[in-house]
Amino acid sequence: MILEAAGVKVTARALERAYDTSGKFLGRVWRDNRDVPVTEHVEAILAAVDRSLLGRLAPDVRAALVEAYGRPALLAPPRADEGALEALQVLASQGYALAVISNTMRTPGRVLRQLLQHHRLLDCFTHLTFSDEVGVRKPDPIIFALTLSAVGATPATALHVGDDPMLDVHGAQMAGMRVIQVTHVPSPTVVPRPDARIKTLRDLPAAVAQLAT
Q1: Domain locations in the chain?
Q2: Is 110 exposed, middle or buried (0-12, 13-18, 19+ CB in 10 A)?
Q3: Residue with the larger pLDDT of the pair 127 and 187
Q4: Predicted model pTM
Protein backbone atom coordinates (compact mmCIF):
# COMPACT_ATOMS: atom_id res chain seq x y z
CA MET A 1 0.00 0.00 0.00
CA ILE A 2 1.28 3.45 -0.93
CA LEU A 3 0.34 5.08 2.37
CA GLU A 4 1.88 2.28 4.41
CA ALA A 5 5.13 2.58 2.43
CA ALA A 6 5.10 6.30 3.24
CA GLY A 7 4.82 5.52 6.96
CA VAL A 8 1.09 6.32 7.27
CA LYS A 9 -1.03 3.70 9.01
CA VAL A 10 -4.67 3.67 7.92
CA THR A 11 -7.11 0.81 8.37
CA ALA A 12 -9.06 -0.60 5.45
CA ARG A 13 -12.27 0.38 7.22
CA ALA A 14 -11.12 3.98 7.55
CA LEU A 15 -10.31 4.10 3.84
CA GLU A 16 -13.72 2.67 2.97
CA ARG A 17 -15.44 5.35 5.03
CA ALA A 18 -13.26 8.03 3.43
CA TYR A 19 -14.09 6.70 -0.03
CA ASP A 20 -17.80 6.94 0.77
CA THR A 21 -17.32 10.47 2.08
CA SER A 22 -15.56 11.46 -1.13
CA GLY A 23 -18.53 10.07 -3.03
CA LYS A 24 -20.83 12.52 -1.26
CA PHE A 25 -18.47 15.36 -2.18
CA LEU A 26 -18.46 14.27 -5.82
CA GLY A 27 -22.22 13.88 -5.78
CA ARG A 28 -22.61 17.52 -4.80
CA VAL A 29 -20.23 18.60 -7.58
CA TRP A 30 -21.83 16.39 -10.22
CA ARG A 31 -25.34 17.46 -9.23
CA ASP A 32 -24.54 20.91 -10.65
CA ASN A 33 -23.13 19.39 -13.87
CA ARG A 34 -19.62 20.35 -12.83
CA ASP A 35 -16.52 18.22 -12.42
CA VAL A 36 -13.08 18.28 -10.83
CA PRO A 37 -9.75 16.57 -11.61
CA VAL A 38 -9.12 13.23 -9.93
CA THR A 39 -6.49 14.92 -7.78
CA GLU A 40 -9.42 16.46 -5.90
CA HIS A 41 -11.04 13.03 -5.55
CA VAL A 42 -7.91 11.79 -3.81
CA GLU A 43 -7.63 14.94 -1.70
CA ALA A 44 -11.22 14.43 -0.52
CA ILE A 45 -10.40 10.87 0.53
CA LEU A 46 -7.26 11.91 2.38
CA ALA A 47 -9.08 14.76 4.12
CA ALA A 48 -11.76 12.33 5.27
CA VAL A 49 -9.08 10.09 6.77
CA ASP A 50 -7.17 12.93 8.45
CA ARG A 51 -7.39 16.63 7.54
CA SER A 52 -3.68 17.07 8.18
CA LEU A 53 -2.67 14.08 6.06
CA LEU A 54 -2.44 15.81 2.68
CA GLY A 55 0.02 18.39 3.98
CA ARG A 56 2.22 15.66 5.44
CA LEU A 57 2.58 13.63 2.25
CA ALA A 58 5.46 14.18 -0.16
CA PRO A 59 4.53 15.21 -3.73
CA ASP A 60 5.66 11.87 -5.16
CA VAL A 61 3.42 10.01 -2.72
CA ARG A 62 0.42 12.16 -3.65
CA ALA A 63 1.18 11.56 -7.34
CA ALA A 64 1.36 7.80 -6.75
CA LEU A 65 -2.00 7.87 -4.97
CA VAL A 66 -3.62 9.73 -7.86
CA GLU A 67 -2.13 7.26 -10.34
CA ALA A 68 -3.38 4.26 -8.34
CA TYR A 69 -6.83 5.81 -7.91
CA GLY A 70 -7.45 6.12 -11.64
CA ARG A 71 -5.93 2.80 -12.69
CA PRO A 72 -8.54 0.09 -11.76
CA ALA A 73 -10.37 0.26 -15.11
CA LEU A 74 -7.15 -0.77 -16.84
CA LEU A 75 -6.94 -3.95 -14.78
CA ALA A 76 -10.26 -5.23 -16.17
CA PRO A 77 -11.05 -3.15 -19.27
CA PRO A 78 -14.76 -2.92 -20.08
CA ARG A 79 -15.90 -4.39 -23.36
CA ALA A 80 -16.48 -2.12 -26.33
CA ASP A 81 -19.52 -2.36 -28.57
CA GLU A 82 -18.58 -5.06 -31.07
CA GLY A 83 -19.57 -2.86 -33.99
CA ALA A 84 -17.87 0.30 -32.76
CA LEU A 85 -14.55 0.09 -34.58
CA GLU A 86 -16.01 -0.75 -37.98
CA ALA A 87 -18.72 1.91 -37.67
CA LEU A 88 -16.28 4.64 -36.66
CA GLN A 89 -13.88 3.72 -39.43
CA VAL A 90 -16.68 3.91 -42.00
CA LEU A 91 -17.78 7.35 -40.78
CA ALA A 92 -14.22 8.64 -40.67
CA SER A 93 -13.63 7.42 -44.24
CA GLN A 94 -16.71 9.40 -45.28
CA GLY A 95 -15.13 12.59 -43.98
CA TYR A 96 -16.94 12.97 -40.68
CA ALA A 97 -14.99 14.56 -37.82
CA LEU A 98 -15.53 12.29 -34.82
CA ALA A 99 -15.23 13.40 -31.20
CA VAL A 100 -15.86 12.01 -27.74
CA ILE A 101 -17.84 13.76 -25.00
CA SER A 102 -17.62 11.81 -21.77
CA ASN A 103 -18.58 12.21 -18.11
CA THR A 104 -15.67 10.52 -16.41
CA MET A 105 -16.93 9.51 -12.95
CA ARG A 106 -13.94 8.14 -10.97
CA THR A 107 -11.95 7.07 -14.04
CA PRO A 108 -10.04 10.07 -15.43
CA GLY A 109 -9.77 11.08 -19.07
CA ARG A 110 -6.12 10.02 -19.26
CA VAL A 111 -7.15 6.45 -18.40
CA LEU A 112 -10.14 6.50 -20.73
CA ARG A 113 -7.75 7.40 -23.54
CA GLN A 114 -5.78 4.26 -22.74
CA LEU A 115 -8.97 2.20 -22.79
CA LEU A 116 -9.90 3.61 -26.19
CA GLN A 117 -6.40 2.75 -27.40
CA HIS A 118 -6.81 -0.75 -25.97
CA HIS A 119 -9.86 -1.24 -28.20
CA ARG A 120 -8.12 0.44 -31.20
CA LEU A 121 -10.71 3.24 -31.13
CA LEU A 122 -8.55 6.20 -30.14
CA ASP A 123 -7.26 7.01 -33.62
CA CYS A 124 -10.82 7.29 -34.93
CA PHE A 125 -11.36 10.55 -33.06
CA THR A 126 -10.07 14.01 -33.87
CA HIS A 127 -10.92 15.35 -30.41
CA LEU A 128 -11.80 14.03 -26.96
CA THR A 129 -13.62 16.01 -24.27
CA PHE A 130 -13.56 14.54 -20.76
CA SER A 131 -15.48 16.19 -17.95
CA ASP A 132 -12.66 15.95 -15.39
CA GLU A 133 -10.44 17.93 -17.76
CA VAL A 134 -12.90 20.69 -18.74
CA GLY A 135 -14.77 21.01 -15.43
CA VAL A 136 -18.28 20.57 -16.84
CA ARG A 137 -20.47 17.51 -17.42
CA LYS A 138 -23.30 16.43 -19.65
CA PRO A 139 -26.11 17.44 -19.93
CA ASP A 140 -24.77 21.00 -19.61
CA PRO A 141 -24.73 22.49 -23.14
CA ILE A 142 -21.29 23.98 -22.43
CA ILE A 143 -19.51 20.64 -22.79
CA PHE A 144 -21.15 20.12 -26.17
CA ALA A 145 -20.25 23.66 -27.25
CA LEU A 146 -16.61 23.16 -26.24
CA THR A 147 -16.42 20.03 -28.36
CA LEU A 148 -18.12 21.60 -31.36
CA SER A 149 -15.70 24.50 -31.20
CA ALA A 150 -12.71 22.13 -31.02
CA VAL A 151 -13.71 20.34 -34.22
CA GLY A 152 -14.89 23.48 -36.03
CA ALA A 153 -18.55 22.46 -36.19
CA THR A 154 -21.86 24.11 -35.39
CA PRO A 155 -24.86 22.55 -33.64
CA ALA A 156 -26.84 22.58 -36.88
CA THR A 157 -24.20 20.51 -38.68
CA ALA A 158 -23.44 18.13 -35.80
CA LEU A 159 -24.94 14.90 -34.57
CA HIS A 160 -24.55 13.43 -31.09
CA VAL A 161 -24.63 9.70 -30.35
CA GLY A 162 -25.28 8.38 -26.84
CA ASP A 163 -27.39 6.10 -24.72
CA ASP A 164 -28.62 8.16 -21.77
CA PRO A 165 -31.99 9.92 -22.25
CA MET A 166 -31.06 12.94 -20.13
CA LEU A 167 -27.27 13.23 -20.39
CA ASP A 168 -27.07 12.50 -24.10
CA VAL A 169 -30.46 13.08 -25.71
CA HIS A 170 -31.67 16.02 -23.62
CA GLY A 171 -28.17 17.48 -23.25
CA ALA A 172 -27.42 17.48 -26.96
CA GLN A 173 -30.86 18.82 -27.80
CA MET A 174 -30.35 21.71 -25.38
CA ALA A 175 -27.11 22.41 -27.26
CA GLY A 176 -29.06 22.55 -30.54
CA MET A 177 -27.87 19.21 -31.91
CA ARG A 178 -29.66 16.25 -33.40
CA VAL A 179 -29.27 12.96 -31.55
CA ILE A 180 -29.07 9.24 -32.26
CA GLN A 181 -29.77 7.19 -29.15
CA VAL A 182 -28.22 3.76 -28.68
CA THR A 183 -30.91 1.80 -26.86
CA HIS A 184 -32.82 -1.47 -26.82
CA VAL A 185 -35.98 0.42 -25.79
CA PRO A 186 -37.37 1.86 -29.03
CA SER A 187 -40.65 3.08 -27.53
CA PRO A 188 -41.71 6.38 -29.18
CA THR A 189 -43.33 7.45 -25.90
CA VAL A 190 -39.93 8.02 -24.25
CA VAL A 191 -39.24 11.71 -23.62
CA PRO A 192 -37.05 13.38 -24.72
CA ARG A 193 -37.24 11.79 -28.15
CA PRO A 194 -34.05 11.37 -30.19
CA ASP A 195 -33.98 11.89 -33.94
CA ALA A 196 -33.20 8.20 -34.41
CA ARG A 197 -32.62 5.07 -32.37
CA ILE A 198 -30.22 2.19 -32.94
CA LYS A 199 -29.60 -0.97 -30.91
CA THR A 200 -25.87 -1.17 -31.62
CA LEU A 201 -23.15 1.03 -33.04
CA ARG A 202 -22.96 -1.37 -35.97
CA ASP A 203 -26.10 0.37 -37.23
CA LEU A 204 -24.66 3.88 -36.83
CA PRO A 205 -23.43 4.59 -40.40
CA ALA A 206 -26.84 3.70 -41.84
CA ALA A 207 -28.62 5.89 -39.29
CA VAL A 208 -26.29 8.82 -40.02
CA ALA A 209 -26.85 8.41 -43.76
CA GLN A 210 -30.61 8.37 -43.27
CA LEU A 211 -30.57 11.56 -41.21
CA ALA A 212 -28.23 13.22 -43.71
CA THR A 213 -30.85 12.79 -46.43
Answers
A1: 2-70, 84-212
A2: middle
A3: 127
A4: 0.92
